[in-house]
Design brief:
This protein is α+β, with helices and mostly antiparallel strands. It is about 45% helix and about 15% strand.
Length: about 400
């Protein structure tokens, strides 16, 4: 096994970075769906979102269960999974859980950042997200734990009245009499990817701090309680969540695009927007310097280039040298970057410092990007500007008490 790039961070730094990575992963759709609407229309965008999440979240949900030792088939396991899912980043998607027994629970969203992003677009978009998309994707997430689980709304947006709190309220019931949920065809395809089965280092149980999440369900996860080793593993798992979600997104887009070029273009625009926003959040969260060294460190920690081994890149001496990797075999994000397609890389550099430029030489699968400082500021790319319309661009995490939740 090869040591993670995140292992170079301190435990305190990792506790800051992990929720950032969860939020960055959530911004994938803020970046990608705008381009799906422009190319395929709103109704097809909704279907792409359903296939994207249902084709990937069952895989990465089970990965995180195994990594953190909370495998099971009950409501506690489902709720723990939501707390480590890029679909529900902490605080931005402010889940509040209630457990009645192992088979019956509820959750509310005290505040839903995704809803607040979409509400200005009108009720059709809200209905698409909170009804058409949520019904199959909530169940897809739940059935990763138990095929007889059903998530059903008590109430949900469009909000009536317009300031209704909480934003939504759902029951989660596991009942053997419920017909088992059926996976969508995309899930079998994505399950065959190298990302789905990528092996990461086992968490060191001797490391100071929590090595797993086998204890009680917590109202809010305290990332500072986990060990350095556990946080490194979580960070790499969250990056794999993003790769799996993109692979599923790309599969859904290709099914609707009239050419491979259009499909790649939509994917590249999604990546470019996310690359810039993600770089900005990583740089700010870890207080990295706005120079070439700070940019190289941002690249090193960016989900585009992680986990190590799945994406092969040597970083140092003002350069990022990328080699053929399992990520290339999968058709993951890294395949959207090349000497001809520099925008995703430039978006990362510009987020650190607009004076930085990226020059890339080599082939489609083996190239070297060199960072230089110039006298003129690069303009923020339009894909990044679209993504930063989301309130997730400037969202600030708060310190919260981590209280155990017991059966009521």
């Amino acid at each position: 096994m090869t040591e993670s790039r995140y292992a170079s961070l301190s435990r305190d730094e990792l506790a800051v970075l992990v929720p950032e990575l969860l939020l960055i992963g959530h911004m994938i759709d803020r970046s990608g769906m705008a381009w799906c609407i422009s190319e395929f229309g709103r109704e097809e965008m909704v279907q792409i979102a359903i296939e994207e999440w249902a084709g990937s979240s069952p895989i990465y949900t089970q990965r995180m269960q195994r990594a953190l030792g909370y495998t099971g088939n009950d409501v506690f396991t489902i709720f723990k999974g939501l707390q480590f899912d890029i679909g529900s980043p902490p605080q931005f998607m402010d889940f509040r859980f209630t457990v009645h027994d192992r088979w019956n629970g509820e959750f509310e969203l005290a505040s839903c950042g995704a809803l607040l992003d979409v509400e200005p677009m009108g009720d059709d978009y809200v209905f698409g997200m909170c009804h058409t998309i949520e019904d199959p994707t909530f169940d897809a997430t739940a059935v990763a734990t138990n095929v007889h689980a059903q998530c059903r709304p008590v109430h949900r947006p469009p909000r009536t009245p317009s300031d209704r709190q909480p934003h939504c309220h759902w029951t989660v019931i596991i009942d053997e009499s419920y017909p088992p949920a059926q996976p969508i065809p995309a899930l079998a395809v994505i399950s065959e990817s190298k990302a789905a089965t990528w092996q990461l280092d086992v968490i060191d149980a001797a490391d100071e701090g929590l090595a797993d999440y086998s204890g009680p369900l917590l109202a809010d996860v305290d990332f500072t309680a986990f060990s350095h080793s556990a946080l490194v593993r979580i960070a790499d798992e969250v990056c794999l969540q993003m790769h799996l979600l993109y692979l599923s997104f790309a599969l859904a887009v290709r099914a609707r695009a009239n050419s491979d070029e259009l499909a790649a273009s939509v994917g590249r625009r999604q990546l470019t927007g996310l690359a810039g926003l993600g770089a900005q959040r990583i740089k700010n969260a870890l207080k990295l310097p706005a120079d070439v060294d700070g940019a190289l460190r941002t690249f090193e920690l960016h989900p585009l280039l992680n986990p190590i081994g799945y994406v092969r890149a040597d970083i140092g001496g003002n350069t990022i040298a990328v080699r053929p990797s399992p990520a290339h075999d999968d058709g993951a994000w890294i395949t959207l970057c090349s000497p001809q397609d520099v925008n995703p890389l430039q978006a990362i550099a510009t987020a650190v410092n607009p004076l930085l430029r990226v020059e890339v030489e080599g082939s489609d699968t083996e190239w070297t990007a060199r960072l230089t400082e110039t006298d003129s500021e690069a303009k923020e790319l339009p894909e990044v500007m679209v993504t930063k319309v989301s309130s997730g661009a400037d969202f600030v995490f708060r310190t919260r008490k981590s209280l155990p939740l017991t059966v009521v």
